[in-house]
Amino acid sequence: MINLIFSILSATAIMVLFKSFERRDISMVHAIIINYAMAFGLGLAVSHGTGSLRLFNLFREPWIGIAAVLGIGLLTMFFMIGLSTQKAGMSVTTVAAKISVVIPMFFSIVYYGEPVTRIKVAGICLALAALICTVIRPGKKDADPSRWYLPLVLFVGLGGMDALVKFVQHEFVSDASSAAFTGAAFFFAFSAGLLTCLIRRVPFAGFVIPRVAVAGILLGTANFGSIYFLINALNSGIFDSAVLFGINSISIVALSVFCGMIIFRERLSVLNLAGVFMAGAAILLFVHA
Asked: Splitting the chain (289 residues) into consecutive groups of 10 residues, what average pLDDT does each group show?
């Protein structure tokens, strides 16, 4: 249970940090690249002496190809979130990102034959309703609704990566190698990001700005924790995968809402509050599924 809690806290911290970047005028590109360098470093540190992440052994691991795909996907989705927010609007983007939890849940049920119960189905339906109600802001105007392809790509991409995490955890990665796998994925994300900077000729002076460096380090710590603890939670077997993904996603939404209220003084509508309570009810259903 402790791994699940830390995964939820880490993922929520990512949302809080991104919100802070906007207010503090921090370069998103530079912070994201530093974030992946930090996350890779944590993978090296945590995996030391456990089988671990040594560069000369890295490409011998059976999961190295999946780690590369996941790493590039992580980098792509981070930038897609920013682009979709600008083009499609905040509400549409958030809904697309959060309801993507449906993909790994169905993957776990279909591919691994995890049991389907009425309570689990009710929990999934209530979770989707909670996610939608939580993120909708009545009276707020979103961007052109014709630009649905970005949220669709985000939905499929994030859901696919979560399903990939489930697959590699089940087939290849144990608790002993979870730090190595997570660190490797972030290494590939960092490498792809650095290559992107070179191709796009992004000014490297931005990497040494103190506030940007600190922001990237904090983001990298949270980013590493969100995946590392999620894999360990999956390995613990405390819940089956479909239930665990549901609890993880809904809890992140609920906690992010409360952080927004307390830290950033965001106001919630009656519909938003109803969504938070539905999220709590969905979690109870998942726990008792």
From this structure: 92 85 83 89 71 60 88 88 67 71 81 83 83 70 59 86 85 75 84 89 87 94 89 84 80 81 79 82 74
Which residue segment(s) compose the domain that 160 sits in? 2-287
Q: How many structural domains is the chain composed of?
A: 1
pLDDT value at residue 146? 46
pLDDT recorded at residue 191: 92
Alpha helix locations (H) across the chain? 2-24, 28-46, 55-58, 64-87, 90-98, 102-111, 118-135, 149-171, 175-200, 210-236, 241-263, 270-287
Q: How far apart are CA 101 and CA 156, in angstroms?
A: 10
| Residue 129 half-sphere exposure toward CB, CA atoms < 13 A | 14
Name the burial class of residue 144, with classes exposed (0-12), middle (13-18) and buried (19+) by CB atoms within 10 angstroms of its CB: exposed
Name the nearest CA neighbour of 66 among 193, 167, 197: 167
Spatial distance between the Cα atoms of 272 and 132, rounded to a whole number of angstroms: 9
Q: Tokens 């996907």 correspond to what residue? A: 73
Closest by CA position to 102, among listed 75, 74, 130, 80: 130
- Give Cα 180 to chain centroid, integer Å: 18
Q: Scanning the structure block, which residue is given the tokens 């000014």?
A: 203
Q: Which two tokens stand for residue 108?
A: 């776990």
